[in-house]
Amino acid sequence: MNTLHFKYAVEVERTGSITQAAENLFMGQPNLSKAIMELEETLGYQIFQRTSKGVIPTEKGSAFLIYAKNILASIEKMEALSDRHSAGQTLSIAFVRSTYIAFALKTLISEMDHTGKLRLNVRETNAVQIINSVVSGSFSLGIVRYRLFHEKYFMDYIRDKDLDVIPFWEFDSMVLTSERNCRERDKITGRDLGSMTPVSFGDESIPYLSFGEVRREAKSPVADKALFVYDRATAYDFLHTIPDSYMLTAPVPPSELEKYGLTQRKCDIPNERSKDVIVFQRGYKLTDLDRRFINILSEIKNSAEFDLR
Rounded to two decimals, what is the model's pTM? Predict the structure, then answer.
């Protein structure tokens, strides 16, 4: 029985709403509903009664929730004995090379107490490396990105590694270019990209696909061009240096576009809707710093979605 599901049930009881609980837990409502149903099936009885005004505990559900709260409180006390919780401000995260995530991390660091204990373990890399780093315990949290076209590959791989996952952001990829390469239009189509030079990360990987298959997908939709890099700084240098070069990325905060002299346009080509998910080992308890980081990410995501309307 997964104690993380206990936490889900307690939050549903606290809010009286699966929708609000899902938002507080940074997960989708369908995933939370499924988790609660799986827990009820395991227990053999219904925890919540669904009503038009929300959800309320059943008689057996109320008894279960008392036990669940006691178990969670005991786990918290046991975890408090760990050195991890006495190490001051600690954040351990691996994430895809993405400007909005790096910007969130920079924002978090600016808020931290730099006079106290501080330990940051941060790495930007590809999605499969992130998953394996979390599995090995090298990092506590991971932020993985994949195109929706490849979702089954990634979700099967994550489940195979027995990780918990929080769906975070589903977005349409943006075309990132230098300001001087900007074209006076709101959207860029696949035909436009055919005459441009794509810049992408050379170590991108997709579970169950060969390296060659991944490389072929990274090429321009029309032209036989591809430039592969391995860090964001080099990518941005290429965007400034190479005429008509571009990258497909998540939405970038306006302040970062200005900082790097870049601009972004909406992308009107197929199979370029992507999703970022947060992964961590089963049983891992998010720290206050983890939660603050996720809150900052959410603020940036919400701002980007508002700006792109």
Answer: 0.70
